[in-house]
Write a structure and sequence with these properties.
single chain, 55 residues, mainly alpha, 2 helices, elongated
């Protein structure tokens, strides 16, 4: 496996994007659509402001 892929996997593990170190050996495997969607939804939850308007 290419070094750049390993670096991405290690960074994802460190940042908590993935929580299972065994993924580091399976980075070339395809992901089901639901996994990608779940990651995007979790990212959106973190990025979107979670506040109410005072208006």
């Amino acid at each position: 496996m290419e070094t750049w892929k390993k670096q991405i996997g290690e960074r994802a593990l460190h940042k908590g994007v993935i929580d299972d170190p065994s993924w580091l050996e399976r980075l070339d495997e395809p992901l089901p659509a639901w996994v990608v969607l779940q990651m995007l939804l979790e990212l959106m939850d973190k990025v979107e402001p979670n506040y109410s308007s005072y208006d």
